[in-house]
Amino acid sequence: MLQVATLNLANWLGNQPDEKQRFARMLCEGMKDCGFVRLVNHGITDDIIDNLEECKTKFFSLPTSEKMKIVNLPGPKPQRGWSGLGVEKTAHLYNPNITEPSGYEDAKEHYDCGPPQDTMFPNLWPDENLVPGFRTSIETFFVRAEAISMHLMEALEVGFGLSPGAFTRLCEGHNGELRVNHYPSIPASRISNGSTNRIWPHVDFSIITLLFQDQTGGLEAWDSTSETFAPLLPGSKSELLVNSGNILQRWTNDVIKGGLHRVVLPLEYGDTLPQRYSVAYFMKAPRDKSVGSLEAFVKDDKPTNYSNITILDYQKAEGPRPEHYHGECFAHYEASRTDFGNCLAVAESPTLSTSWTAPMIALKIRQRLEQLPGDKFHIGDRRLQEGRHLMGTLDMAPAFDADTLYVNDWVKNPFQQVSFGFESARFWQPLEVETLPVKNLASC
Question: Cβ contacts of residue 301 below 8 Å, gap of 6+?
């Protein structure tokens, strides 16, 4: 089991210089050691924690139809709203032996939101009558976590002997994101067989992350001494785990490594794993800030390991490739819509309701698509979105010009979702799509 330092934030917020210096030194040492520390007396009260716990339990207990009303739509944007079980795939992120994550599952659903002040990417909230106090609880936690994160960055400046503002000037504004995770109860065999984890090994896309976890267990962090993953056991209800993200690793030129972690089987378990909850606040910087190494961490004998690019460019380069963004057909939508790199549409028929057969979806493409030999149109349900069905090369389908495309796919997942798009990024353009009424197309 991984032993990490426990820090008292009250010592940093107090007026005793020796205590402040000791806190800053221990924070730097803990981050350099394994990328994790524990934090107590941070100011997030038990009442805030209890309210959030009650609200998140109610939210994830809602029917799928209600959660779908605030579903997170895929695309090159911050995540907002609900993402269903298995939608996010992380198996390939830090495993060079996995290039196609289609056969691997993340057994979790999650809700994501940004700062309350964000008007460019506004947050999506469930019906207040169904989950009373959800928004208030989330926003209260968010504001407290944002303030705690800034205190920790100030302490890192002191611990490293940097000038005031060396880190904090890069974190100005409201840029963080918050995620509430729900890992439903599943048979333990699904994880032990190697094809499923609650979440696979990864480093957070953040500067630092603040994490509340329940008492279920299963969180493990990389121990560089033993070169293996070791359990990070849950502490008290009010204890925060703080871990370093990939942005802090770049800023410090690898002096602090990003805290590599995963969620797997707990130390003790039976045939069925109990459900697990966690809440993570990801401290982030404005997208125009650099992710290059700071001058203080670059020496003649330690040149920079990282290029001086913006966070936005880094996220584009390191994030999902364009072909990983898929449009979806959701039966409950009433009209078609378009999004960057996706076409989102709906079959105007109850065929996509509860059937586990092979429904037909008729889509009419309104503009001609550029045809490059070898590029393929694909469809597939979300569970198979990386192992999709190939529908033939576009140079074999010139009838795409203002014609009707009949998509015949088996939709064997509980959300009745179908994804479609182009395998090559050269074809990712907003599509003008209208959905035709679907009747009996079995003979088409």
Answer: none
Please check whether residue 265 is in contact with residue 218, taking contact to mean a CB–CB distance below 8 angstroms. Answer: yes
User: 105 - beta bridge partners?
Assistant: 196
Predicted local confidence at residue 311, as pLDDT: 87
Q: What is the pLDDT of residue 335?
A: 23
Residues of the chain with pLDDT under 50: 320-444
**Domain boundaries for CATH 2.60.120.330 within the chain:** 6-334
Q: What is the predicted pLDDT for the residue at 76? A: 65
Backbone angles phi, psi at 377, to 5 degrees: -85, 140
Q: Which residues of 335-356 are buried (b: 16+ CB within 10 A; e: fewer)?
A: ebeebebbbbbbbbbebbeeee
Q: What is the pLDDT of residue 318?
A: 66
6-334 has which CATH code? Answer: 2.60.120.330
Residue 336, pLDDT score: 28
Residue with tokens 């074999």: 396
pLDDT, tens only, 179-228: 999 999 999 998 888 888 888 888 999 999 999 999 999 999 999 888 89
User: Per residue, what are the HEC states of the chain?
Assistant: CCCCCEEEHHHHHCCCHHHHHHHHHHHHHHHHHCCEEEEECCCCCHHHHHHHHHHHHHHHCCCHHHHHHHECCCCCCCCCEEECCCCCCCCCCCCCCCCCHHHCEECCEEEEECCCCCCCCCCCCCCCCCCCCHHHHHHHHHHHHHHHHHHHHHHHHHHCCCCCCCCHHHHCCCCCEEEEEEECCEECHHHHCCCEECEEEECCCCCEEEEEECCCCCEEEEECCCCEEEECCCCCCCCEEEEECHHHHHHCCCCCCCCCEEECCCCCCCCEECCEEEEEEECCCCCCCECCCCHHHCECCECCCCCCCEHHHHHHHHCCCHHHCCEEECCCCCCCEEECCEEECCCCCHHHCCCCCCCEEEEEECCCCCCCCCCEEEEECHHHCCCCEEEEEHHHCHHHCCCEEEEECCCCCCCCCEEEEECCHHHCCCCCEEECCCCCCCCC
